[in-house]
Amino acid sequence: MIPLLALLIRARWAGLLTVGVLTGVLGALAAVGADFPGRTGDRLAADTIAEAPLAEREFRIAADSKDSSNFETTLNRVRDTPGLTVRYGQQFDVLGFVPNDASTLMFREDFCVHLKMTAGRCPVAPGEIVVPADQAKALQVSVGSVLDVAQGLFDDKYNMWYPSPDGSHPFDVVGVYTPLDQNEDYWGWPSPFTTRLDGSVEGPLLTRADAMQAVPHDSHLLTADVLVEPSLLSSMTWQQFLEGILQPKLIEPPSDGLPTLLDRVQDQRRYVGVATPAVVLPVLTLGCLVLFLLVSRQVQRERGELGVQAVRGLPVPLRWALGGGAPLFVALAGLVVGASITGSPFTLSVGLTAFAVAFAITVAVLPVVIARPVDALRQVGPAWAARLRQLPAGEVALVALAVTSLAFVRTTEGLGNFAPALLAAAMVLVVARVLPAVVRAATPRLLRAGRLVLGLAAAQLGRRPAARQLIALSGLAVALLALVASSLATSQVVREKQIALSVGADRVLSVRAADPGQVIAAVRAVDPEGAFAMPVGRISSETRHPEILALDLSRAAQLDWDRAPAVAAQIGPKLTERGLLSKTVSVTVTATPLDGVVNPRALLLAQVTTSDGRRQTVTLGSPNAGRSTLTITLPAACDAGCRLDAINGVAASGAGWRLSLEELSPYADISDWRVVGSLEKAGNWKLTGSGLLLPPEVPEALPAIATPGLDVDARRMDLPLSGGSLKLTQVGEAPVLPRIGDTGLLVDLDTLIAATGGAHTLDSMEVWLTASAPASLTAALQAKGVLVVGSVSRAEARTVAARSPAALVLRLFVGATVVAWLLLGAVLLAVARVDRGSPDLSALRLAGLRERTLRGSSRLAYAIAVLFGVLLGLLGAGLAWALARSVLPITSGETWLGVPVVPPALPVLVPVGGGALALLAVTWLAFARRSR
């Protein structure tokens, strides 16, 4: 028995080598599939945690000083927990440093090592304090100054701070500091430091803990900022962190921040864990089908030898060992070797793959082994096997699974993730079963018509089970390739659109300046042609309105946004250019006191902007009863010219004047200038309280482009102004806005400034740059007084997107598809090698047909099978895409524009066409030499 088995192995070495290599590839794929979710999940978790803001990596424990005993107990329990770093602090609001405004008196443990002292030293005694450098310079506070500090109380009624009646305490200023890094984790979230638009840093007054009690106050805030180590964050879910750390220590869990981060990490792990089997399992199944076909064809070729052994009385187990023992041994050995190369040979997925491989080989060998000796000698299989092959049981089961999977497509787990593979496979296999019967029916007609080569090819396609199997395998491989190509192409399109919109430009600089107008002036100075830079302002969302993006639409051509031209046409700047003021300004006013008011007080102010964008307030004067002319000399900053933005009037509430402004030199008549928030004009202005006068060309309502569903006009959105408000009106709609997303408003920057009289403070300023922007631009902006504090680019965004869960799973999808095509090429060569010496072709050769004719018919048969497979694969992939594209690894999160209904055609057809040509080339080479 053993020598016979050795002889068979020697005779089969080529086929067994093919089996060993293919199962080695399957073992490697199974091992990678088992290791990929955990390894990739850890990598994603590490990246996500490293990029997460401090607000998501820490939580705060806070208590009133009256409850200090319980706070200290909780604090001690937290300090004893591995993986948690605690920063203890105390603070409360005080007056005595900034006039009429509160500062924070703060102690934070070990704060001195995180400061750079620009003058003096850190506090060492209870009566000593250090102050922030920028504020100290502005307020003329230095080392040696004494600050009389009192607790600050806020009056909601009068909207003002006032000192506590309990008294104050003097502090000696012993140091002036700047933080080494105001954004470092030590300072906690929110940071106690604020950077103003001009780049100056405001911060707390820092002192010793025992000095806090010296200031009379009712109570103060005790804080403990708890920073969670990355190793702890990456190893726990929020539920585990809650139940394992917070609840045992009786800590109130945070409502956002840390839970958001841990849930995001868990979602990424879940996505990879669910998507990986949906990518790997179909290819492993395809590999088992390939292995079944290879072993089945080889055993069918050797069934005569097995029949002789059956006649000799060899038992069934030994006959099975003779027919399937060698393939099984080689397959399992190859599986272990392939899995070992990847470093994970003993995983559940590898074990299940080994069981599936053994099952496929057993099923392939069993019909031949248990056949009756006479049937084996006649090379006829058992009747039950033939009847079983005729039953479409597999196709029916696959269709049922495919239909069932559609019900779970919208879920993130379960059978729905396999819907694309099941739908494509069901369509391919069903058509592949019907197709040979159609070809078989056409065979006699082709032969009678004298088309010998085509008729023989049709006969081989119609009669041989391997033909149907080859069509099905080709279709499955092409469907897999089409799906991965569609996913790759669509993912690239979606990713690029998302990056283009979310970043806004090729590079975006976050900038600060004393006034927003300074940023605008600086950008227009360094790029006067508007070729590569655009000033942009943003207003944070409020109850009155969502987030607002203000673009300089006079430079809309720079925007890489298909809606930019239409938006610029709708809301672009349409303001009249007025002459600049440089020397003196005079205004002619006729003033009449309101009824019942004696000697009312009022003041007129001119709001101007200098040539470098700085906003200035110039006092015009106080009107007197009757007609008068108020004349002023503009400050030196206006020597190069100033733009008049608005005229502001201030009077006592309930008292004032009825003003008629007639002339404003050098602008002549200004009687048509309008009062914000009313129907009054400058020629008849009832001034009580405060009011704002704007040029007539400035729109009464600021036109805006809104995202769907905001109902700007119906909700009466507006911006607060001095003496009134600026109404927002919707003039168009866009599905998404750059940098804002699918909820927000877009306005023109120049129109916004004009409509608010230059008075509305933008919350942040940016400079958007095209790819052609020079490298020296940052230095040029800073020379103009604009501080660049951060930047983001599309290149950086692409790098981040390439590490997303969907992108990483898609790479695995590509690798699995390559494996599937290697399997298809191997089975094509192996089956062709067996079929070259098939008995029916040998009989036809003996009957007198030329070998060239037979070889051509075989080539044509395989070529037709491959072409049928390509068409079926494309149809199957199209069906899967139409019904289940949402579960393909295209994007792992919500995208602003969604996933396109139709994938790009060229990136899909090129690889499928190349694959089809490669299969046809393999078909040609498989029959290139004469059969023996």
TrEMBL record:
Keywords: Membrane, Transmembrane, Transmembrane helix. The keyword Hydrolase does not apply. The keyword Transmembrane applies. The chain crosses the membrane at residues 271-295, 316-341, 347-370, 391-409, 421-442, 470-489, 808-832, 860-884, 904-927. It comes from the Bacteria. This is FtsX-like permease family protein.
